[in-house]
Amino acid sequence: MRLNGKQILDSAWVAKSSPITRHIAMSLAGQAVGYGYCWRLLVTADKTPVYAAKGEGGQHLILILSKQVVVVILQEWSL
Question: Where in the chain are the domains?
Answer without folding.
Answer: 2-73
